[in-house]
Amino acid sequence: MEPILDVEGLSISFRQYDRGAHQRTLPVIHDLSLSIAPGQVVAVVGSSGSGKSLLAHALLDILPANSAREGVIRYRGEPLTPARTAALRGTEIVLVPQGVTYLDPLMKVGPQICKGRREGRVREACRAVLARYGLPPDTEERYPFELSGGMARRVLISTAVMESPRLVIADEPTPGLDARAAGRILGHFRELADGGAGVLLITHDLELALTIADRVAVLYAGETVEEAAAADFTTPGGLRHPYTRALWAALPQNGFRPIPGSQPAPGEIPTGCRFAPRCPRCRGDCQETHPAYRSFRGGMVRCDFPGEVME
Ligand SMILES: Nc1ncnc2c1ncn2[C@@H]1O[C@H](COP(=O)(O)OP(=O)(O)OP(=O)(O)O)[C@@H](O)[C@H]1O
Ligand code: NI
Asked: What whole-number distance in Å separates Cα of residue 17 and Cα of residue 126?
């Protein structure tokens, strides 16, 4: 089946001015490839600063002006040009943004969800979507400052899903929500996918991702290091990359063993494997050679020594 979304070799960098007129380029996403078929929920999992929101913004063509982008993004087989993205954004392709600041503070919630349209059908759909997320009917009449954080999140999601999108890009959609509200939202994403949409779920929370995702792509310091089926996460032996295994071992049900160290910042990327400084399997070459992203055992991995189980 033709993918809904197909990203090939996406790289993003920022132009920055050091001192005076001296310009430097800060690479933040490198060579990212990913595809989503109709009916699929694909999760992108990575820690803070790994490039998740930038990926979402690149897909919606809302990156900041001082950024540069390489690679190809195709939507239903055709490249997503700026004009095409602008035409599809908000209707066929929707973003659930990470921050509630995306709500217009000067506009009541109802008109924001309805995007200014007043037809009875639209108002009806708005009321239905609010009810679905457990928001009282008078939410329509409120301004964003009159909402709690959790309500504002649910309003953002309502705004996104109003139009029966074909591609949903959800950037950390559930922080601050209780388990029931989060479950309801994820359940709705799953339903949209079961109805034929593609869903890209962006989160730092692997456990949450595994509740609905079909596949998981793991992002580390701006690069995908593994793409695995959700079922591969049943045992660490099913996984390919040492970082993915470390994420697995850090889950509460697997002993909550976090790995020491932290992800390198964009200006401090090592030459070889980006995970080498923290990798329990690191050997000589890993520090020098940057590993390619390749197929391995039915998934993808960026490691020259994949699939070795840690004792
Ligand atoms: N406008 C910008 N100029 C320069 N660097 C930026 C800019 N926006 C983001 N970055 C850098 O790009 C990297 C990735 O940022 P991004 O917001 O995508 O992270 P994230 O994975 O979404 O993190 P979080 O989980 O905290 O939301 C970070 O190191 C960040 O500092
Ligand atoms: Ni983010």
From this structure: 45
Is the Cβ atom of 30 under 6 angstroms away from ligand 1? no
Residues 61 and 74 in one domain: yes
Does the beta carbon of 108 lie inside 6 Å of ligand 1? no
Euclidean distance between CA atoms 62 and 56, whole angstroms: 9
Mean pLDDT of 202-223: 96
Q: For the chain, what is the domain count?
A: 2
Over 70: is that where the pLDDT of 96 sits?
Answer: yes
DSSP letter at 292 equals P
In a shared domain, residues 28 and 173 = yes
137 belongs to a structural domain = yes
Nearest to 99 by CA among 202, 232, 243, 6: 202
Task: State in Å: Cα 282 to ligand 1 middle.
Answer: 27
In a domain, 62, yes or no: yes
Work out the pLDDT band at 311, boundaries 50, 70, 90: very low
- Residue 311 inside a domain? The answer is no
